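step 4 of 6: structure.
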Amino acid sequence: MTWGANAERREKMKRRKDNGDPASATGLVFDIQRFSLFDGPGIRTTVFLKGCPLQCAWCHNPEGIVPHAELLFQPEQCVGCGACVAVCPEGAHRFEIKEEARAARAAQDDAAAAGQPWSAPVGHVLERKLCTVCGACAPACPSKALELCGQRMTVGAVMAIVLRDRGYYMDSGGGLTLSGGEPLFQPAFATALLGAARAEGLHTAIETSGCGGWTDLEALLPLTDLFLYDVKETDPQRHRAFTGVPLAPILDNLRRLVAAGANVRLRLPVVPGYNDRPDHIEAVARLAQSLPGLEGADLLPYHRLGEGKRMLLGQPEDRAVSLPPDTGQVQAWKACFAAAGLDVWSAE
Amino acid sequence: MLDLRPAWRAQACRESMGQPEPIVRALAFARVLREDALHFYDGDRLSGSHVGWHAGALPGDLSPAEYEALVNEWRTRGQRDFWAGWDHTLADYPKLLAIGIGGYLTHARATLQVRTAPCEQAALRGMIVALEGFSAYIRRWATAAARRGMADLAEIAQHIAAEPPRTFHEALQLVAFTHLAFESEGRYAMALGRIDQYLLPFYRQDVAAGRITPAEALDLLCHMWVKLAENGGVQNICIGGLTPEGADATNELSYLCLEATRLVQSPYTNLSARFHDDTPEAFYRACFSVIRTGIGFPAIFNDHVLIPGLVEIGIPPAVARDHCMVGCIETMLAGRQQAWSDGRYNMALQLMRAMDRVQGRDDLSFEVLQGAFLSEMRDSLAAYCRDFNAYIARFPPDLFPDPFLSALTCDCIERARDINDGGAEFPRMHGIAVMGLGTVADSLAAVRELVFEQRRFSYDELMDALAADFQGYEPMRQALVNDAPKYGNDEDAVDAIAASLVDWVSRECLKHRIDGGGWFVAAMAANVSNIPAGREVGATPDGRRAYTPLSDAASPYFGRDTHGPTAFLNSVSKPDYHRVLTGSVVNMKFEPAFFRGEQGERVFLALMKAFVRNRVQELQFNFTGNEVLRDAQRDPELHRDLVVRVSGFSQYFVQLSKEVQDDVIRRRAHGQP
């Protein structure tokens, strides 16, 4: 994928952005995770909004980037029933069952009967070029080899799920976290969701890259108890290269948020081969020190979860992204921030 | 090692031939206590051990042939067993500590003067012989301790051999001796009951008088826990809850018991913590500090479920509030009831019988299937109760009296009757452990949803697939697994089925009575019997393969609860368990990293408070080790619920790529979160 295409895509996204009336707001949601413990205090429900203007090389939620529904396909889950072929109006699904595959499938049947996992090489091919993501095949698929990622939901529908855990939020000081994707990419929906949660007395948090208009962020200010704010890269050129967007507006938004008295924690991905450099670590520490009242920072060591998800999206990985940092690397970051007087938390 | 006890008992029986059975059995009991070689460990702060009734070789005056003959004689005489009422019980410890062994003897001897019927005389004499033997046993320990130069242990034993205890140390020692005497009879899973209640007056007096510090009391409790570890098995200890008057009973000893459990880390002291709406926050925190060690204790219980259930069957509220647990989780009126028992009842098997029975009916509908299922259950539960009553008829009280336990059970002396002959204040309970709640609820939901509502396939096709154990029907099996709601995900459609099953079956059990008095009550606690029960049942409509395990106890089926712990807890909150009087077990599995630090404590407390508020009956918390993760790699379908921490967030383990899974396992093997 070239950066040019990325710019074009962003342009397209902008046109699709929702605009206006919070009461009737709907948004594109790709996951709702209950009992979420690492996106703010207490027990939370994290709502993942689909669509993101960034293209981080190391993205761990690549299914959250495109602002429309996508088809996830896990061939190894396919049991070869052919239901998708029957319902697909575009002929995007086909089976290339060769004789040896048939034999292998019969053997899998026996293995499955003996309680082994079912993974027949059934030769299911999805022609993504033909697929219009109409959503017909996913509900027909009995084994969840095909799943639709991204569902348009109303604020009410999201809140009905969120509020099932109200008692747990109250007892643990938890609540709702918006994540993504980039929540700022659907500002009216994000505002309406946080407003609804606030009206129910829940703690509200938002996980953001900071890439959005200041007026959108400003609108969230009175509704948001905690901003989890990404700082991915402090070198402007590298930032643009790694994420596809400029750094300056993001830092600008961060300073304005802090100045406006928002409760902010920095989120710092640790990605060996990208930002695991002393100059970046020191720059983050300096940045943190320049932000009075910053609550602290969370280190997020890189993990390879996103790589598997790209496969489901039909984006075979053609580059080795990174490796998870070892404990020593993470400790070095931690030590540097601790020395700068920052409250730092890490998973390691 | 040779167990000498059967030979000693048989010798006592030979010598007392012709006497009434209660006296014969009491003499057999006393003989073991008279012969016990009395073993001390270095550093003992409590006397008592069962080392001394085993030997590496037979004593010189006992030939192997004679030993064999004696063992056979005792075996022929027979003994009560679990179903007949034998173990899973305890003494009336509060009364024992109040009046001492001497007090019981005085009462029994006085009653002997007024209750003159031959059977009453025999029962009372049996109890007196057992108590005298027990008292003599404690005196033997006193002498042995003095001989070893353990003056304090000698003095304590000397005093409590007849007198009521005066101090915390003496009270604890008397409980230890009593428990040991039960062990000497070969009873399994004996409980200690509400130790933080009945020891409390002694502890407070000692503290007030400056005789003991909390640290010293903790040390003694640890010694007690280690003594219990020598016995092994499942020894229940109950802490917290309500007082008989209905106030909060949590006290300083409750915390010391938790601390002892945390320090000793023994799997044999099965700690049960009772909770209610006014349980102090500090008690939640203290329980959490033990649970987070990964030991699995304490299991937590809800007073607001069990107490109303006991009251509903006629137990006075003050008595109901004073209940404890025996064995794993079973409800018991301590020292006031015949010994507890339970058996296994396979609910999934009844569903499959009903499914066969209705196949081919013209008017087949979900309601018809439901009706057939309930009628199968009605008949099979009645058959279960008949079988149980026929079984216990083989243990008539006159041939199988239990004098020592009778002596220490409320009202046996007063009534001059054995505990198994109407002597106990309240009748017994027998738990019918209903197995397969999750499997059956999921199966019914799948049939309703996919066969009768969506008509994805016909009833006959489903039955063919089940008969073939889904061979050649994998797409249908996938639909049954994925396209019908599953218990444990906070989905009302299927949770309501589980709730009505719990309600129906717990009412149905209570319609039956034990011969000679007592209730059949439902249990939802299968221990590991869901595995053998699964071997009786072919493929089920929830997509479960033939002869594999059923869902465990009152928990959802393995791996089907994929919406996290809050959805899980919301689901298991929906059934009304108050008539499941034996108790229920809901197992929750957690990634240990969730409970690190202050945030972990906050999260855990919120789950526990939801448990109390939502009136779930029982919960236990397990932490997933790496062996579970490796199982999940081999068999993902049974582990879809397994959540692990990956870096800064959590994710379903089976959804991770093999590489990431291996990362997680490696990381955890090094003790990192």
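step 5 of 6: annotate
 - Chain B touches chain A through 49 residues (CB under 8 Å).
 - Residues 341-585 of chain B form one domain.
step 6 of 6: archive
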